[in-house]
Amino acid sequence: MGRFADALGAPGLGAIAEIKRRSPSAGDLRPDADPARIAPAYARAGAAAVSVLVDERFAGTWDDLRAARAASDVPLLAKGFFSTADDLRTAKEAGADAVLLLLRDLDDQTVRALMAQAEDLGLDTLVEAHDAEELDRGIALGAPVLGVNARDLSTFAIDREAQLALLAGVPSDRIVVAESGIASRAQGAAAELAGADAILVGSALMRAPDPAAKLAELVSRPLVKVCGLTREEDVAVAVDAGADLLGFVLAPESPRAAQTVLPVPDKALAVAVWVGAAGESAADLDQVHTVEQGKVRGRDATLYRGAEPVARVVDLPWEEDDPTHWDRARSTEGRVVLAGGLGPANVAEAIAAVGPWAVDASSSLEVSPGIKDHARVRAYVEAARR
């Protein structure tokens, strides 16, 4: 594999940031987009790679790829409807590190030949699937980098749930990219937890006043969780403030127990919080605390996506303190959700000390158990996202 694949396979969630002036589904996005300016800005904002549309249906040309190459050393993906060895040679000569191959448009024999020709040219391939049948083909063909597109290219409809289900089925020895429909950090995190190594984002960046700043926002960590929610108005404030994860405690013994998981907009993720074992709910994720005799919950928890553990929640003992708490969290391997005693005054310090995947606050944001102080919620999220 080449440097495009290597960049996507690095630890953490990578991002392929796209340059496209228009979309057949959305029309004009950024007609004046300048690849020579945007590509290096994306690289500075943390892009693992940059995708450049070279097809006229997206108002792109090969000169756009050449301009991006001249302006930046970031790995470049040439994106178009490629079907011949000549297409690949043109991409290589224009400065591409990788090319897109659409399983929808190509039979297995052609894909196999193009993958071999790309390898001979020193190009990586992003082999893109839109449904389970195409994904099975890509896996069987041995494609090392697979893209799963949430957009139906016939209807242009986005089906994010179907995409997440497909991502979860990709073998762990492949690099997998979630494509289309990602406009928030939580949506990117959902793809990450389903198994994506990277996300490909185009329209959301091109529509933003500052595409590079939007990219930096999407890939930034930690995620921010507001827990112990019981009222719709508190959910609305947390979402408006920029929280990524919204927690609903479904343990009846808790002083901030919720009746149910309240509706959450699709730009955020709902987390059901349990003690002992997860039950049924409408949440995207389950946070399951251990059981401890005489206490509402045990100290720590595991975050699950379905039956799959995806993160560790490192918390304080129930209604107790521990001066080694942050050190303990820092030494925990994998994705860490840091909880316990966090609020507007100390969350930035905690992030600097621990470097967690997510931070979680609840009681410090309340006026009474289960009732949030809106000003404190906003201050906490702002402090965590600086």
Structural class: alpha/beta
The poorly predicted ranges are none
Whole-number total of structural domains: 2
Q: How confident overall, as mean pLDDT?
A: 96
Q: Beta-sheet strand percentage?
A: 15-25%
Helix content range of the residues, please?
A: 25-40%
DSSP summary: helix tally:
14
CATH superfamily of the largest domain: Aldolase class I
Q: What top-tier CATH class of the largest domain fits best?
A: Alpha Beta
Distance between the first and last residues' Cα: 36 Å
Name the overall outline. elongated
Strand order across the largest sheet: 1-4-5-6-7-8-9-10
Largest sheet: 8 strands, parallel, barrel
Task: Classify the fold: give the CATH topology of the largest domain.
Answer: TIM Barrel
Summarize the structure in words.
The chain is about 35% helix and about 25% strand. The chain folds into two domains: about 220 residues, Alpha-Beta Barrel (TIM Barrel); about 160 residues, TIM Barrel (Alpha-Beta Barrel). The strands form four sheets. Strands 1-4-5-6-7-8-9-10 form an eight-stranded parallel beta barrel, surrounded by seven helices. Helix 2 packs parallel to helix 10, helix 4 runs parallel beside helix 5 and helix 11 packs parallel to helix 14. Helix 5 links the parallel strand 6 and strand 7. It is an alpha/beta fold and about 375 residues long.
